[in-house]
UniProtKB/TrEMBL annotation:
Entry similarity comment: Belongs to the FMO family.
GO molecular function: flavin adenine dinucleotide binding; N,N-dimethylaniline monooxygenase activity; NADP binding
Top-level class of the enzyme under EC nomenclature: oxidoreductase
EC number annotated for this UniProt entry: 1.-.-.-
Designated name of the protein: Flavin-containing monooxygenase
Native organism: Polypedilum vanderplanki (Sleeping chironomid midge)
InterPro entries registered for this protein in UniProt: FAD/NAD-bd_sf, Flavin_mOase, Flavin_mOase-like, FMO-like
Lineage: Eukaryota, Metazoa, Ecdysozoa, Arthropoda, Hexapoda
The keyword Oxidoreductase is annotated on this UniProt entry: yes
Cofactors named for this entry: FAD
Amino acid sequence: MKVTVVGCGPSGLCAIKNCISEGFEVVAFEQTSEIGGEWNSNLEIGPNVHSKIYEGLLTNFPKEMMEFSDFSYDENVTDSFLTPDKVQNYFLKYTEKFDLRKHIKFNHKVINVQPISDNQWEIIVEDLKNDEYKTITCDKVFICIGISAPWIPKIEGLNDFEGKIIHSRDYRSTKMFENKKVLLMGSGVSALDMVIEIDKVAEKVIWINNFRQTHGAQIKLELSDKTIDKSSTVKRFTKSGAEFEDGTFEEFEIIALATGYDFTFPFLSVDSGISVYDKLVQQLYKQIINANRPSMAIIGLPLFSITMPLFELQIKFCLQYWSGRKNFPSKDEMLKVIQKDIKVLKIDENVHKAQCLGLASDEIYYNDLAQTAEIKPLKPVFIKMCNFQVKNSSKNYRNFRDYEFKILNDFEFSIECLTKEK
């Protein structure tokens, strides 16, 4: 069986490794010159750069939750919360350990993925170094590209603003904000990290965080008097500032949009069976399998989740079916499950309508995947660590990474506070 993997970030690497273990013939395409995806430290910015790394970035979860089951971090990596270079080094060693590079075509950009039969795909790839196009066929396709297309809110007058507009994807340091008046929009992890740092250097910060709910938990954050925690939304932008729904007006020089990302798959043909509407990837059974064409899978869509263990679980779920050990439900049955899941996803109006998991739905989703595909479930300790970390960050965001975690067994973990004052 021939399998194509699109993208060689964490999920793509895991897909390659597990396809090899199944005895499949696998080729992967990566449009950059190195593996790692967003963990490939790159301080460049622009539409073709997928790294979201900025100065001072640390992982949101401890390393024990950011590794695959068959490969651990080196013993000399003792910190629980890691810098991007340590995470990238893990993926480099993972790639070396399982000899994955021989399956990867670097500097190859996938241009088009189109079905040519019920169980076969034609893929057009651009060789960026040699300026050539190649066409291959395969039986199965893993889409492992993550999310990197900035979501820009549609607000009247945004294009009229004469100052600078930056999305968090292109945020690298606070230098551009020094002694400036800044409007920051967003309430996710990137926005929280940004407001803490920008607050230190800007003349004034107006922080719009009306959603104020991350992963099902309220976030409390103390900032200086320079930062205005604004609950009112922007009614319209002007050349120099914005009018708010509460009738107030503020002037500023920079708009920083930490507003998240859109799911985009520009290389998928219109008959691929996949579409995106209202920030929801349509027709995905269990948020993985293309229900219209089950020979395609998209890995890593659920947001606010345990990343690496989730990627591995989704990939193994998929391979249970592609290997023939399990048979897919009928298309009608899969579509019924999808409609049921969509209703659940849209219950919480405080969360963007997207592939989102929360504290309650995380464990249900993970266990459902394992039970449905009859594969080994995630260790319960991962769920407990995730729940602790989310709740802890909501209470003490500035210092929630100042802990050292240690897994004791499949069910228990210990923590040690590394700072005296909490």
